[in-house]
Each structure stands twice: as structure tokens, then as C-alpha cells.
Specification:
Largest interface: A-B, 24 and 20 residues
Radius of gyration of chain A: 16 Å
Strand content of chain A: under 5%
Number of helices of chain B: 19
Structural class of chain A: mainly alpha
Largest sheet of chain B: none
Order of helices and strands of chain A: HHH
Largest sheet of chain A: none
Strand content of chain B: under 5%
Oligomer: heterodimer
Number of domains of chain B: 2
CATH topology of the largest domain in chain B: Amino acid/polyamine transporter I
Number of helices of chain A: 3
Helix content of chain A: over 70%
Helix content of chain B: over 70%
Radius of gyration of chain B: 25 Å
CATH class of the largest domain in chain B: Mainly Alpha
Number of strands of chain B: 0
């Protein structure tokens, strides 16, 4: 049971870290790339709140992922 | 590990140069134009006013630095007088603002270099981000090598910078195109003068780097107050004389529309050589700020690690170089990452907020420490106490009212981030797991709701069918992953 739990924890932790990094990179792309903003139909009024939400999600995901990985080490 | 491992190798000259180098940043070369449009030639008064406001707080730095010469500057003062969360917040803002200041200066330097390369019609071999990152790497290596090397580099940079500003000032005075005395006039009246003061005050920030490096300054009881006071007075003299020369050559209304007002003024009486000289001076100012800020951020994180707020590894001193190399490298990685994004506005706002918060807490620390520890040995005492620290608090708080609203917003966000870091370090591990588990369930529930909306009412989210399918898949995947993560976070492995 312990080994299965450890494997799942490492896998889910890794996925969360990956999603967090992706969300942070995405936040930067939304800020820096006007093409990306056009694709997602993000207006200039919505820009900072979109970035904020993506960054909060990103930071939380990375933190949660690291916590899971660290817990099972 | 005792703090004596940091070597006391900086003398009065190097400490003063560190203060000057920290304060004279590239911002001086670009902020004059807008400030002149607000205050006219009365900007000279605003310059002196800001210098005096800065001096109030610098006196507090001098007293506290001489009395408690441990690494960490504002953080150490706040810890001695308040302790707990207040000291952490002070250190947190100090660390963040120094990191952002280094990133801001590195980006400023990179812009100047790329501008100079383009102006000379040479091919630009690297982007602004790459130049900024390389700059951070170079100064990180210098900082790791030792505080003596950092001090020498800073002294060399600041001596060249002061030399250039000296040439600019004397040449400008000798060849001033206007005759007769300068008439002081403020187009925006007193309010304009105040707004200009709030805007221009940033050029005085950074001199407190001396306090951050106080654990490495020889004979701290004598050297720290002298270096801080010399820096504060020299800054008033330098800025006021530069502004005086500027207004003798060019009227303020002409400066407002110039991107680089100092270079424009230099061109008027020195020709193309003037533009070159001012660009070099701006680059050196940016470099010296990068050097000082990298050193300052590492000493703050070193002090925070000493007290258990930051990971213990930041407290390690390199046995050969005598520097907190891991603290330097960790901060440098964040600085390089910030510089690489080139998000200059955000970085500048965060820097201003952090420094002003630091000013308020240093003055508060002085007052509290005088009340709580009246017999503490103080090699230097603030004259006319309690007037200077009270005025320092009031003027810093007033500055908060005049700064951009977005600066306050960013400051609040940084405060929340600091609060999270504090909770992580101070709250027990199991409770953190519970909280994170709960948040994971929240994210999972939100994504499940999103998936349900996509399935039940596709019209509610107006997107093409393939895009809706991808979104549905992503929502289900994230919902499941975060649900499992939530379960794993709140449960313990019974077999262990």
C-alpha cells in the first residue's frame, strides 16, 4: 500500500508542479504576447486579473505538488 | 553558526560608495523631465526637501546601525525592537525590494546598452533580456568572491560615475547659456511641488544598503553613522547641483517631453559627446545599483535564515570567500528570472513600496528601542529626538498617498505572499497539509463545475466544438488530479 501511495503521490505531485509552471508561463505569455491575448480574447481591462488568477493558481499548484512530493520522500 | 563568520572588510570609503552606488540609479537620468513639468525650476526645492526627508530616516539608520551592527539592516532593527511577524514583514519587503531593484537596474542597463549599440549602427548580438541576465550573472560572481571584491567594484564604479557627474556639472556651470540668477517658479503651485517631491524621492532610495552590510563594516560604531550621513549629504549636493545645471541650460517645460532629459541637456552644451558621456554614466549607475542590491538581498535572506524564517542553507557561509553564497545564488536566480521577463513597471512599483515600508519600520524601531532599551550602548544618537523619526514616519506615510495606486495594489499582493511564507515557516506541517488539501478540493470542485456546465449547456460557454471538447477534457483531468492530491494531503500513510 505504501509503495502505491508513494507512486501516486509522486505522479500527482509532478502533474501539479507541471500544471503550475504551465499556468505561470501562460500568465507571462498573456502579458507579453498580444497574439496570445487576441486568441484568448483577453481585453486590456481583463489582462491584470487574468494574470493574477493564473499566477495564484500556478504558485498554489507548484506549492501543493512540492508538498506532496516532499511528504512521501 | 555564529554571525562572526561574515568578515568585517569594508572601510568608510567603501561603505560610503556602497550607499552612493545604491542610491544613484539609472532612474535619476530619466525622472528629471516629468518632475520638472510638475514643479518647474522649484524642483530644486523639491530635491532639497526630499534630501532632508531622507536624512530624517537616515539618522535612524545611523543610530540603529551603530548600536546593532548585525547583518540584515531594517530586519535586524525591527527584530530587536518588535520581533515576530512585524520583523518578518520588514525583512520580507526589504528582501523583495532589493531583488526587484537589482532586476530593474539590470534591465535599465540592458536598455541603455542596446540603445547605444543601435545608435552606433552596430548589429545587436543579444536581446535586452539576455544582456540583463548576463549582467546579473557577472555581479553574482563578484558578490560570491567576497565582500571586499564587491566593495572594490562598487568603489571603482561610483568614482567613475561621480567623475562624470562632476564634469557634467562644472562644464554646465561654466558654459551656462542663461545669464543672471535662476528664477524659481512652480507651475503647479505647492501641490505640484509635493507631487514632484513624491515622484523624485525614489532617487534617494537605496542608500540604506550600508545598513544591510553593517555586519561586514570595520569599526561599525564609528564607520556606519559616518558613512550613512556622508551618503545622505552627498546625495543632496549631487542631485541639487545637477538639477541646477539642468535648469541653467534648458527651461523645465522643454524637459518634460524628453525621454532622457539629462542626455538632452548634455547635448545642448557638450554636443554628441555629452550624450555619450551621460549614457555611460547612466549605465555605470545601473551597474552599481545591481551590485549593491545583489549584496543587500543576500544579507537580508541570510539574516532571515538565521532566525528560521528562510531555509537554513541560506545561513551557510562559504569557507574560502566568507560570503553567504547560497543566499546570493538563490536571490540571483530570482533576479535573473524577473529581469528576463522585462516587466519593468511592476518591478519599479514593488521596489518603491518595499523601500518606503522599510523606512517607516526603521523609524518605528528607533522609537520603540529607545523606550524599551534606554541603556543600550548607542555610539551615535539621533539629535533632536523624537522629531526626526516622527517626521520620517509622517513623510514616508505621506509619500504612500502620492504614489501610484497600482504601487499600493502590488504592495498588498506582496504582503499576502509574505504572509503565506510566514505561515508556512511558522505553522505546523500537518496544518499546512490540511489547508493545502482543502484548497485542492476547492480547485477540484470548481473544475468539476466547469466540466458540468460545458456538458449540460454548451451555449453558456461560447466556443467552437473541438475547443469545448479539449476544455472538457482538461477540466475533468484537473478536477480528478486535484481531488486525489487533496486526499493525499489530508491523509497519513498508516504503514509508515
Amino acid at each position: 500500500m505504501g509503495k502505491v501511495r508513494k507512486t501516486i503521490s509522486l505522479l500527482i505531485g509532478g502533474i501539479q508542479c507541471g500544471l503550475g509552471v504551465l499556468a505561470s508561463v501562460f500568465a507571462y505569455l498573456v502579458y507579453a504576447d498580444s497574439w496570445m491575448r487576441g486568441l484568448l480574447a483577453v481585453t486590456s481591462e481583463e489582462l491584470y486579473i487574468s494574470m493574477f488568477l493564473l499566477l495564484v493558481f500556478g504558485i498554489f499548484s507548484v506549492f501543493s505538488g512540492l508538498l506532496l512530493v516532499n511528504k512521501e520522500r | 553558526m555564529a554571525e562572526e563568520h561574515l568578515k568585517r572588510e569594508l572601510g568608510l570609503l567603501q561603505a560610503t560608495m556602497m550607499g552612493l552606488g545604491g542610491a544613484i540609479c539609472a532612474g535619476v537620468f530619466v525622472t528629471l523631465g516629468y518632475a520638472a513639468s510638475l514643479a518647474g525650476t522649484a524642483l530644486l526645492i523639491a530635491m532639497i526637501l526630499c534630501g532632508i526627508i531622507n536624512l530624517f530616516t537616515m539618522l535612524s539608520y545611523a543610530e540603529l546601525g551603530a548600536a546593532i551592527p548585525s547583518a540584515g539592516g531594517e530586519y535586524t532593527f525591527a527584530k530587536a525592537s518588535f520581533g515576530g511577524f512585524i520583523s518578518f514583514v520588514t525583512g520580507w519587503f526589504e528582501w523583495i525590494s532589493n531583488m526587484f531593484y537589482a532586476a530593474f537596474s539590470a534591465v535599465g542597463f540592458a536598455y541603455m546598452v542596446s540603445y547605444a549599440i543601435q545608435a552606433s549602427k552596430m548589429p545587436l548580438i543579444a536581446s535586452v533580456s539576455v544582456i540583463a541576465v548576463v549582467t546579473v550573472v557577472v555581479f553574482t560572481i563578484i558578490n560570491i568572491k567576497g565582500v571586499k571584491e564587491t566593495g572594490r567594484t562598487e568603489t571603482a564604479l561610483v568614482v567613475v560615475l561621480l567623475g562624470i557627474l562632476g564634469v557634467f556639472t562644472f562644464w554646465g556651470l561654466l558654459t551656462g547659456q542663461r545669464t543672471g540668477p535662476l528664477q524659481l517658479s512652480a507651475p503647479g503651485d505647492f501641490l505640484g511641488l509635493l507631487r514632484a517631491s513624491a515622484f523624485i524621492f525614489v532617487v534617494y532610495l537605496g542608500g540604506e544598503a550600508i545598513a544591510v552590510a553593517q555586519a561586514e563594516i570595520k569599526d561599525p560604531g564609528r564607520t556606519i553613522p559616518r558613512a550613512i550621513l556622508l551618503t545622505s549629504l552627498a546625495l543632496i549636493a549631487i542631485y541639487t547641483s545637477v538639477a541646477y545645471v539642468v535648469f541653467r541650460i534648458v527651461p523645465p517645460e522643454e524637459l518634460a517631453v524628453k525621454e532622457s532629459p539629462l542626455a538632452y541637456v548634455a547635448e545642448q552644451f557638450m554636443g554628441p559627446l555629452g550624450v555619450g558621456i551621460v549614457t555611460v554614466a547612466g549605465s555605470i549607475a545601473a551597474l552599481s545599483s545591481v551590485n549593491t542590491a545583489i549584496m543587500a538581498q543576500s544579507r537580508v535572506s541570510y539574516a532571515l535564515a538565521r532566525d528560521g524564517y528562510f531555509p537554513r542553507v541560506f545561513f551557510k557561509i562559504h569557507k574560502d570567500f566568507g560570503t553567504p553564497c547560497l543566499a546570493i545564488v538563490a536571490g540571483a536566480v530570482l533576479i535573473a528570472a524577473t529581469a528576463a521577463t522585462g516587466v519593468v513597471n511592476f518591478v519599479a512599483y514593488a521596489t518603491d513600496f518595499g523601500f518606503i515600508v522599510g523606512f517607516i519600520f526603521v523609524n518605528l524601531s528607533l522609537i520603540r528601542l529607545r523606550m524599551r532599551k534606554p541603556n543600550l550602548r548607542r555610539p551615535f544618537r539621533v539629535p533632536l529626538y523624537p522629531l526626526p523619526p516622527v517626521l520620517g514616519i509622517v513623510t514616508s506615510a505621506l509619500l504612500m498617498l502620492f504614489i501610484e495606486p497600482s504601487t499600493l495594489l502590488i504592495g498588498i499582493e506582496l504582503f499576502i505572499l509574505g504572509l503565506i511564507v510566514y505561515c508556512i515557516r511558522m505553522v505546523r506541517y500537518y496544518r499546512i497539509c490540511l489547508a493545502v488539501g482543502g484548497m485542492n478540493f476547492g480547485v477540484s470542485g470548481f473544475c468539476a463545475l466547469l466540466a458540468f456546465i460545458i456538458v449540460s449547456d454548451p451555449l453558456a460557454i461560447s466556443m467552437p466544438h473541438p475547443m469545448a471538447l479539449v476544455s472538457l477534457g482538461a477540466a475533468v483531468f484537473v478536477s480528478l488530479a486535484y481531488f486525489i492530491a487533496g486526499l493525499l494531503s489530508i491523509t497519513e500513510d498508516k504503514g509508515r
